[in-house]
Amino acid sequence: MKLKLHVWRQAGPSARGQFVTYETDASEHMSFLEMLDVVNEDLEEKGEDPIVFDSDCREGICGTCGMVINGRPHGPWKRTTVCQLHMREYSDGDEIWIEPWRADGFPVQKDLMVDRAAFDRIVAAGGYISVRTGSAPDANAIPVVQVNAEKSMDAASCIGCGACVAACPNASAMLFTSAKAAHLNLLPQGQPERYGRVLDMILTMEAESFGTCTNHGACENACPKEIKIDVIAMLNRDYMKALLKAS
Amino acid sequence: MELRSKVPSGPIDQKWTKHKFDMKLVNPANKRKYHVIVVGSGLAGASASATLAELGYHVSCFTYHDSPRRAHSIAAQGGINAAKNYQGDGDSVFRLFYDTVKGGDFRAREANVYRLAEVSNEIIDQCVAQGIPFAREYGGLLDNRSFGGAQVSRTFYARGQTGQQLLLGAYQALMKEVHKGQVKLYNQCEMLDVVLVDGQARGIVTRHLVTGKIEVHLADAVALGTGGYSNAFYLSTNAMYCNVTAAWRAYRRGAGFANPCYTQIHPTCIPVAGDYQSKLTLMSESLRNDGRIWVSKQVDDDRAPGDIPEDQRDYYLERMYPAFGNLVPRDLASRRAKDMCDQGKGVGETKLGVYLDFEDAIQRLGADVIEARYGNLFEMYERITGEDPYRVPMRIYPAPHYTMGGLWVDYNLMTTVPGLYAIGEANFSDHGANRLGASALMQGVADGYFVLPYTIADYLAQAKLDPVAEDNQEVRGTVEEVESRIDRLLALDGDRTINSFHKELGRIVWDNCGMGRNATGLKEALEKIPVLRQEFWENAKVVGEGGSINQTLERAGRVADFLELAEVMCLDALVREESCGGHFREEHQTPEGEALRDDENFTHVTVWEYTGADTAPREHREPLEFENVPPTQRSYK
């Protein structure tokens, strides 16, 4: 199939970006990123700079890849990162617009690649359980209600790709932060640090350049791991309790 | 090169305990005076960084990813083994040790394997305390499953995302120490060389992938947790960025490289679809618990699977291995699939595939049970192939997945370079010639949480470590070598793209040093690889400049190193005149087509020493002794 691609090209964080149009011939069996690989291979053969985009595992688990395709983070398929999107979605003559995540919290590094280190800083603020290596009790000494273990696992499935931020009209990082907190706060092991964790993570999130949550729900819709906005409600409840406890 | 394994004396079950007591300690107040560099932030690297920092050492952790959480450990699906015996089905530390030594086809160091089995239980305790949401039974206790041919249920799992959850646990522990300032984290920073001063590893040279800046980082010891080299095959289940550069640069600085020919081909991957294919996708081995593997009895059968009647199907694993059936170890399942395709019985458009069929399981258990067990995998399969595995059997084919070979390390995980350690998949130590399912995660975290943090103290407490300045001659020399190599790569202005070289190399290695190897093919590969390498340096093309993000340049450096490694892989496969585990030499097989070991001549680790760019590497041997698990012919019949 013949396709027309409009790809965002931007030389660096402070450079001015623009859409550049490429034409390519793709097979329906290719993945979306393999289609871009072929475009890049052609560019390299011509001695031109290939399109910079980040991707690693290409199995939808590492969270490295991410781009906005025709206005949708990770493209049109539900529960799918862009590396798992396949070209049978498209047909001959289609035009495709490809952009990076757009958010102040994720400055563009080059073309489609953005800096998501802000997520690491949110985790560093409290997204962990403090347990020194070797000091843990026997694993079965801490029974966990099965339903809670499953809910915790649902939240822990977050791959940190940033699609939630890209989808949010406010570029808020609430779904990411809430998922991270919920994973730990739903478990008995996470209780001792629960409220301090919530305060520290929210404080850090606000200090980064993310917007605030106004309950649009666009994040849930874009999340390739289908993390529900219930976790945001949980974080908000915990935050209220944490503020009361802190005062 | 001297290979001293430093295995402690005494009975196998007391070696590690005794060793921990015998090793020198660094006084708590002195630990802050030492600086350790950890390269890689996967399971081994992140867990080592976090634990060393908790102990009080200053740690610098390097990753080429934009976040430490992206390392490829994250993609491991199935689970992690431990000898907890929570199921009361007769498991024990000794049984896990025994299974691992046997599964490795008697080519691993017994003492290391025993230690791995021993610390496996502590790993589960640690991970649960960190909040890893392992699967649980209704009573709230941990669930286990049987995995990869084990006859006990010892595998702990978090859905099909165990690697992800374990890595997030280690990553969180790491970020906690970053927050405290005990670990300095370097994202998007790739190690390009190791710095030796007076023969000791004292730092690394890195290139920042965003700014292109070349920098030197000095320390008292360096640990490489930089993963395996399956991408030498071009197509593998490894992530796109996985590479051998860190380990290979260490090799070129004097670290011995052990058993490079021991590579694991995973039997259940989605077959290759076309020439543009960038990587292969693994389908968890757990599928073999309920799926039945078959091909048509007829050669070149073009019928749709549903049109092939039951009596014309060959469930070849069940036929050949009645005791283990579809659950035979990975190497056997892979080789038999290749045999079927070689005989012209392969399925799918490319004829490089076999069926993995769930029809019987769905009839027996119901589609809902199968969905609960494998729903996410079925969905992934359908997304990639466009076929619905509830109705049409999956097509699978083996793919390179894991490398048992790696940097040689002693019992302390130190390479032949003093102060340079290798952990996780980057070292060669625990899996012998074949790794069992759910053992990679176990080894990665064992090395990082429970072994290296002890053993490194023994070195730091005794080594004479004078302060090193950045203008030291050896340091400057290494930096200059890195800079000139980058310049040389950037100057490449030929006709061929970097990817085309990688693809061609991959094809040579897959055809000649893949599932089946023979002297003729290996010798042919040994002629072709140097020619391809020479062409690379004459005719490759690297576009762009070095002062900003340049993914072509990054790939060029990695492919250049694969072009060197591949030759040593083939050489190693050629001199190992026997079949063992993942290394199958076609000349050495039983009349039934099984791997035929030669214990008399090959019960050793082969270790390669770099002797220069234009000279052959020197072969060394570390003899292996089996005092606790007497070698037998592996039999899964």
Question: Could you walk me through the main structural features you see in this protein, from its secondary elements to its overall organization?
Answer:
- The complex is a heterodimer of chains A (about 250) and B (about 625).
- The longest helix of chain A has 17 residues, at about 230-245.
- Chain A is α+β, with helices and mostly antiparallel strands and about 250 residues long.
- Chain A has helices at about 30-45, 115-125, 145-155, 165, 175-185, 195-205, 220, 230-245, and strands at about 1-10, 20-25, 70, 70-75, 95-100, 110, 115.
- Chain A is built from eight helices and seven strands; from the N terminus they run E-E-H-E-E-E-E-E-H-H-H-H-H-H-H.
- The model of chain A has no long low-confidence stretch (mean pLDDT about 95).
- With about 625 residues, chain B is of the alpha/beta class.
- Among the domains of chain B are: about 265-400, Flavocytochrome C3, Chain A, domain 1; about 475-605, Fumarate reductase/succinate dehydrogenase flavoprotein-like, C-terminal domain (Methane Monooxygenase Hydroxylase, Chain G, domain 1, Up-down Bundle).
- Chain B is built from 17 helices and 21 strands.
- In chain B, helix 14 packs antiparallel against helix 15 (about 520-540) and helix 15 runs antiparallel to helix 16 (about 550-575).
- Chains A and B meet through helix 1, helix 2 and helix 3 of A and helix 3, helix 5, helix 6, helix 11 and helix 12 of B.
